[in-house]
Amino acid sequence: MSGYRQIDDADDEAARKAELAVRGGPKVRPDPLPARQAFGEAEVAMIDEVVAYYRERNADPGYQGHFEKRYTEAFVDTLSGGYADAVATGTAALYVAIAALELPKGGEVLVSPITDPGTLSAIILNGLKPRLIDSRPGSYNTGAAEFEARITPETVGAVIVHSIGQACDIAGIMPVARRHGIRVVEDCSQAHGAKLGGQFVGSYGDIAAFSTMYRKAHITGACGGVVYSRDLELFRRALAHADRGKPSWLPGFDDRNPNGFLFPALNLHTDEISCAIGIASLKRLNATIVGRLSFVSEFAFHLKEQSKLCRPYAYSPADSPFVFPVIVDSAKLRCTKREFAEAVIAEGIGLNPHYEYVVADWPWIKPHLADGFDTPNARAIRDQSFAVYVNEHYGDREVRDAVNAIVKVERAMAV
Ligand SMILES: Cc1ncc(COP(=O)(O)O)c(C=O)c1O
Fold this sequence. Notes:
By secondary structure, the chain is of the alpha/beta class. It has 13 helices and 13 strands. The strands form 3 sheets. Strands 1-9-8-5-4-2-3 form a 7-stranded mixed sheet, with helices on both faces. Strands 10-11-13-12 form a 4-stranded antiparallel sheet. Pyridoxal-5'-phosphate (PLP) binds next to helix 4 and helix 5. The site of pyridoxal-5'-phosphate has 15 residues, from helix 4 and helix 5.
């Protein structure tokens, strides 16, 4: 008698555990996931160093100061050469990088289909017309064929984004761009330190922009950005476009004599404290990427083994994961992909259920685009996937919990 009872109890317990958290069941991950804390002790120590440095000299921090010099030198070292200028935000970096190309106003600029509004705003506010490119089938990123298919006689430039921390095929895109005389800005905001063919992203195009806001792989505080180029002349134009047309590289340049400035431009400077934070944060970029790659590769391995309806997005060990998409076979579910993803969140896993950064979807952008081209490949991969947040402190337990949460939800939701 009591034997039957035990089996009943065990069944009850299994049923209780299988009840989804969205329906009041127990969470797979009841306690919070590890915090990232990109702003840590090393960053705080650098702020103290800024204060001490300027007190010792009885001076106030100014533009292009000691810490900005150190930060941009470290940035350039990290990317194995080139020139870098630290600016206020990633959007400002994009704005300046595009401005530096001095493209003819009204010209068309090809742009990747999945990105932040800052990428589009930087093109439009430079008096240029964004022209969307689709992504490669099954990818968050564009490719050479998709790029070439959208070139017109009006195309003067391109902003190519390395979305979600994955290097796009910029090596394939550049020869096409060169053949057509198209100048290229790389938007590396989500892919700090990612490589393609052994070469860093940001070093393929004419010029590159990085956002260093607080969610990025390395940060300069709440916000920040870097303009980067290997072309000294172009870099100098960028410096002037980042600060009221000042030719700061000229011998004897006098910051207080506007007679010698070159053209009207905004002031998009950053500050010494942000650059000091950037110095500390950049030192751990490599460890950050290694930590994220290790999470992503373990997660992908176990997901492939255990899930019947979800599969990991393809990635390369040279990427710098920003978020990690999981592709869901919705045809075999009794719910939508979004409901599925929300059920996984309820189990205690951090993710974005529906990446809203498909540019062609935004109502406000439509009047600013060169044409009404849709980006069906970009929409399809977004619609099929949810994006798991990636944090360098996630380890085996987070891999296990994330995979268990997905498998639990798919068992409950499978047709
Ligand atoms: C791909 C991409 N481009 C541009 C931006 C804009 O950067 P910011 O927010 O620093 O202005 C971001 C991030 O926000 C981004 O992820």
